[in-house]
Design goal:
Length: about 425
């Protein structure tokens, strides 16, 4: 068996389970929820298997009467277990009694939301710091403290290494493969979405080719705020067939319930002193490897030695996928720090900031990504504009790069190679 990779979310669970009787882990299939959860319980029920599903369907309370912690894996197959856990919590279940892991929002929702009884944690694919590339030297958790820590560190990770990480996937069961085996695993993962997962969500796909083209068009729009109409138009087939608007709404709804779409919402500051900001989401898939496979690019295409496909994107596709990789990592670190992640874009498009990490005190860390090892004044102009707008509400500003050295510029902006940023 592959050795277990400790995740950032493990630190969250270390803090929560000694106090909370139940916690739910949610995230896309294959992200590692089961491997993480089963290390913390004595009993595991896999509700995607017929025997355990039948047992839960007959009497879900039977599954809960086990000491030492119970994992209800893929609980969405028997939504009644959610209500059973909620009632057990109300009846005084002790800390760490139940973990629920789900790869989809169930088609038939539980009768009770679980608010106040079953808090949820989002589990995403492996962040860069979890992949064993190098030891991070810059902590996002420290950056959002507002103390402007010293920025230092050196890495040998280069652009080609980031391309490999984009293609390798952050899904633990896929990234151990290389070459054709990896590509086949990614293709199988995507095929299952169309062939099985949609049907399990109550939306059998009548025209699989249309759905596949729409997901590919969405992937090509990664890290952009392209309109859904533009994405729909980009999914038009060679014979002029375009997915209908109702079909696209259904695609989005199901893919969000499967945690495959992971858009970054637009930021709305608590005090609206920045003028008009767009609330359009910035598009991202759960894993940039899925986006790269959907668009049909390999290492040669991303590094510019082969033609790139056309899309609804701006700039280079590699820049977009690098931003997706950084966004994935920042969201993992921000969740551990109890912060939220948004993006900023003014309606006229004059100012944009890739990521806004907001604390509970409504102060922010601004993050830009740059597919380069060097940073000049033009690269920080939006960060400096935001500093002038927010003053002390801006805790820090960072440009995440593909370079070798972490340092702080004379204007105070931190420059951090992606591999050196950690929780």
């Amino acid at each position: 068996m592959e050795p277990y990779i400790r995740r950032v979310i493990d630190t969250e669970l270390d803090a929560l389970l000694p106090q909370l009787p139940a916690v739910a882990l949610e995230g896309p299939r294959g992200v590692g929820k089961t491997a993480t959860a089963e290390r913390r319980v004595r009993t595991v029920f896999r509700l995607d298997t017929p025997d355990h599903r039948a047992l839960a369907g007959a009497d879900p309370t039977v599954l809960l009467a086990h000491p030492g912690g119970v994992l209800l894996d893929e609980w969405q197959h028997v939504p009644a277990v959610w209500d059973a856990v909620r009632r057990a919590v109300d009846d005084g279940a002790g800390p760490g009694s139940y973990l629920l892991a789900g790869s989809a929002v169930p088609q038939n929702l539980p009768t009770h939301s679980g608010a106040g009884r079953i808090p949820t944690l989002r589990m995403r694919p492996l962040a860069l710091s979890e992949r064993g590339l190098t030891t991070p030297t810059v902590s996002l958790g420290e950056l959002i403290q507002g103390r402007r820590p010293a920025i230092q560190g050196t890495t040998t990770i280069r652009l080609a290494d980031y391309v490999e990480e984009i293609l390798a996937s952050g899904l633990p069961g896929i990234r151990r493969f290389t070459g054709r085996a990896r590509r086949l695993q990614l293709d199988s993962y995507l095929a299952r979405l169309v062939d099985r997962d949609f049907e399990e969500q109550g939306h059998p796909v009548r025209r699989p080719a249309l759905l596949q083209r729409w997901i590919a068009a969405y992937a090509a729009a990664s890290a952009t705020t392209a309109t859904f109409e533009a994405i729909r138009a980009a999914a038009t087939s060679g014979d002029g067939v375009t997915p209908t608007r109702p079909s696209v709404l259904a695609y989005r709804a199901v893919l969000e319930r499967l945690w495959i779409l992971d858009p970054v919402p637009g930021w709305r500051p608590s005090r609206n002193h920045l003028g008009r900001l767009t609330e359009s989401p910035k598009h991202h898939l759960a894993d940039p490897a899925l986006a790269a496979r959907l668009v049909g690019v390999d290492e040669q295409a991303l590094l510019g030695t082969a033609p790139q496909p056309t899309s609804v994107r701006d700039g280079t596709l590699l820049g977009q996928l690098f931003e997706s990789l950084v966004t994935l990592s920042v969201r993992v670190y921000a969740q551990a720090a109890e912060a939220t992640v948004r993006h900023l874009r003014t309606y006229n498009g004059r100012h944009e900031v890739d990521l806004i990490v907001e604390t509970g005190a409504h102060r922010v860390l601004a993050v830009e990504t740059k597919l380069s090892g060097t940073v000049n004044d033009d690269d920080v102009q939006h960060l400096r504009w935001l500093q002038n707008e927010l003053g002390d509400e801006l805790l820090d500003a960072v440009v995440v790069t593909t370079g070798s050295h972490a340092y702080r510029r004379p204007d105070g902006v931190a420059v951090v190679p992606a591999a050196l940023l950690g929780p």
